[in-house]
Design brief:
Length: about 525
């Protein structure tokens, strides 16, 4: 085994459940040891999913190591397919010449790289490894669940970028990889450089325009290429979480041929951009990966109990922030919204999955008994009190609505109805509460698939690059079927704890209450959405 990886000597080898040995160098090792990064040990990758699949207790920590490892392998394979005169165009002229000067002065002599090509490649490999390692640094407890609970999906990415730029200890750790240019300005692998890789081109341009001291290491297309390795169609992030989530949940659908996909990756320069494409022989593995992603969503990520647990947690977070604001202590809003970056740097151990227990206890001690806020906290801590599922699969809800219309509804019209139902979902919850005189509460959650985007995937057939959608009718159909596809889950509960447990344990009582709710839902659909149903 080589004793150097990227721009530093190997310091340790970590044993991983997926890949076996993952080597980490001095720079990476120093980052991993920090409390800020170690916080990810206590952020479950799949949030509450371990309550359905008990093995799903893996963390963002091991996922981050896996993404670093895969991204490194992917980039090394991609770079091996580029001719040197194309490869150097990933860098801008100024920093390429500067790195060449550093090489001539022997700055990299202890790394024992033989030529400037090896040094430039080491810069790129080190860059992608750090981007992979740090890409989830700003995740909330329970990952996406809490993030959505404060109403800002995608916020963890913004927080990650701000955290990397604000974290002084990281800047100190990266000092051996940064170099002065013209006596004052800094180039090399800085926090700004890592964030530039993680950002899309729009946000990256803003970062570069706002930074007065940062000199980009790469050309804009170089950054775009590295960004695709971390955040593309077949990126290191997705490849790792599919395999890792499948392993820990015990399902078989996420087991894809990662090696085949990586080995088939190539890059070609097309005018002013670099395009990633795949060998034709990898088409079955690519199809399998896209199909597996859909199945993992259906079976694991959008499992009806998982959706329920996530929704209960989200509502609990919302109520805790609202209540603490009313009491003017603002503790959760300050910690999770207003001062999240500083909290993650100064008190990283406070923003872990354990925070959710603290929030539940806060509501139990401060919310009005028999209020929804109090119930969410109770249900979070006591599974006996979780709502009962009314509709969990598309087929169930479709059949229910078709029955209302005497079996006459096309799938396209059904999808249109669901889209309108999502818009009126709060009205439906209020309607059930009102018509049952407060005896029954309806809790709903909706999900949306994002398709598989085969049009963005290029396959080499002979001497021509062809969109995957033209080669795989199966994936083209999957994309058409799932893009924009929404589904509504419905659950019922009562704020009376004794009644809730009785409904759950007594099948006769449960059937009575379910039938009562189904009649109310039927009336709501006919009265509120009849015109849309009859189109």
């Amino acid at each position: 085994m080589v004793d150097i990886i990227g721009l530093s000597k190997i310091r340790a080898v970590i044993n991983d459940s997926l890949y076996g040995s993952i080597p980490v160098n001095e720079i990476e090792y120093n980052i991993i040891q920090t409390p800020v990064f170690n916080r990810l040990h206590n952020i479950r990758q799949l949030g509450p999913t371990y309550l359905i699949y008990p093995g799903a207790k893996h963390s963002r920590f091991e996922h981050s190591l896996g993404v670093m490892h895969l991204a490194s392998k992917m980039l090394e394979n991609i770079l091996s397919t580029l001719a040197y005169d194309e490869f150097v165009k990933l860098f801008n002229n100024r920093t390429r010449e500067f790195i060449f000067l550093l090489f001539r002065e022997g700055v990299f002599s202890e790394l024992r790289y033989l030529n400037i090509h090896d040094v430039l490649k080491a810069f790129l490999v080190q860059s992608i490894r750090l981007a992979g390692l740090l890409h989830d640094l700003g995740h909330y407890p329970y990952s996406h669940v809490v993030e959505e609970g404060i109403g800002k999906r995608g916020l963890h990415e913004k927080i990650t970028h701000e955290l990397i730029l604000s974290w002084k200890e990281l800047r100190e750790i990266l000092l051996p990889l940064t170099y002065e240019l013209n006596g004052s300005k800094v180039t090399g692998i800085t926090p700004e450089h890592v964030v530039a890789i993680l950002m899309n081109s729009f946000h990256r341009r803003r970062l570069l325009s706002e930074s007065k001291s940062y000199i980009p290491l790469l050309d804009s297309q170089g950054y775009n290429l590295l960004h695709k390795v971390i955040s593309g169609v077949f990126d290191a992030d997705r490849l790792d979480y599919l395999r890792r989530d499948a392993l820990h949940t015990g399902v078989v659908y996420g087991i894809v041929d990662i090696d085949r996909i990586i080995d088939s990756m190539h890059v070609v320069r097309d005018k002013d951009s670099f395009l990633i494409y795949y060998d034709l022989k990898a088409l079955p593995a690519l199809e399998d990966m896209l199909s597996s992603r859909i199945k993992m969503y259906k079976l694991v990520y959008y499992h009806h109990k998982n959706v329920l647990l996530a929704e209960i947690t989200r509502r609990m977070i919302y109520e805790a922030i609202r209540l603490s604001d009313q009491k003017k202590d603002h503790r959760y809003k300050r910690m999770l919204v207003d001062d999240i970056v500083n909290t993650l740097i100064s008190y990283p151990w406070k923003v872990t999955d354990n925070l959710l227990i603290d929030i539940a206890e806060y509501l139990l001690n401060n919310a009005t008994r028999h209020s929804k806020a109090y119930y969410y906290a109770e249900a979070f801590l006591n599974r006996q009190l979780l709502p009962m599922t009314i509709f969990k699969r598309e087929e169930d809800l479709y059949h229910f609505i078709a029955t209302i219309l005497n079996g006459n509804i096309k799938l396209s019209k059904y999808r249109l109805l669901i889209n309108n139902l999502v818009k009126d979902i709060n009205k439906l919850e209020d309607y059930i509460h009102k018509e049952s005189n407060g005896e029954i509460e309806l809790l709903t959650a909706s999900i949306k698939y994002h398709g598989v985007s085969p049009k963005d995937i290029l396959i080499k057939v002979g001497d021509t690059l062809v969109n995957m959608s033209k080669l795989s009718h199966y994936i083209k159909w999957l994309d058409k079927y799932y893009t924009g596809y929404k589904h509504v889950y419905m659950y019922i509960y009562t704020l009376d704890q004794e009644k809730m447990i009785k409904y759950k344990r007594d099948p006769v009582e449960r059937k009575k209450i379910v039938n009562k709710v189904l009649k109310l839902i039927r009336n709501f659909i006919l009265n509120s959405l009849f015109d849309k149903l009859s189109m």
